[in-house]
Write a structure and sequence with these properties.
By secondary structure, the protein is of the alpha/beta class. The protein has five helices and six strands; from the N terminus they run ααβαβαβββαβ. The protein is elongated and about 100 Å long. 12% of the residues are buried.
């Protein structure tokens, strides 16, 4: 005697099982309950319980019963953050004078090698302190006082 799988869904002898013949088991698909359509069919409160704000029409999201809502109680942040801001590592002239006592060429990579700044970040030379030796400085930025003091000592200040 052949089983149902061997017969196929159509019931014929030796016919293969086809996808379009498949059906859900009886009672597997139930229609959804339509609430609030009369006392006999899950009517009356329709799953909302009895009375109260939630049983009635819609309430705005974030409504706190007349209390000042959280979104309006919390202070707002002021100002803004400039995404294009360049943060320089600063080196003063007195530091340059200590690092290069006999003068010479000063670059950002050389300053990083000597531990004055970190590698890969822009460097700015500021005019605090005095410098008496001629240095050829090539960094990303200078203050006007630093440029004047380097030039007065016989050096050059070139921006990258």
């Amino acid at each position: 005697m052949a089983t149902d799988l061997e017969k196929g869904a159509a019931g014929g002898e030796g016919t293969p099982l086809k996808v379009h013949d498949l059906r859900p088991a009886p009672g597997a698909n139930k229609a959804k309950t339509r609430k609030g359509r009369g006392e006999a069919s899950k009517g009356k409160t329709a799953g909302r319980g009895t009375k109260g704000t939630k049983a009635r029409s819609t309430v705005p999201v974030g409504f706190e019963g007349g209390q000042m809502p959280l979104i309006r109680r919390v202070p707002k942040l002021k100002g803004f953050k400039n995404p294009n801001r360049v943060e320089f590592q600063v080196v003063n002239l007195d530091k340059l004078a200590a690092l290069y006592p006999e003068g010479g060429e000063v670059t950002a990579d050389d300053l990083a090698a000597r531990g004055a700044v970190r590698r890969g970040r822009p460097v700015k030379v500021l005019g605090t302190g005095e410098i008496s030796v001629a240095v050829q400085v090539k960094v990303h930025a200078f203050s006007s006082a630093a440029k004047e003091k380097i030039a007065a000592a016989g050096g050059t200040a070139d921006e990258l």
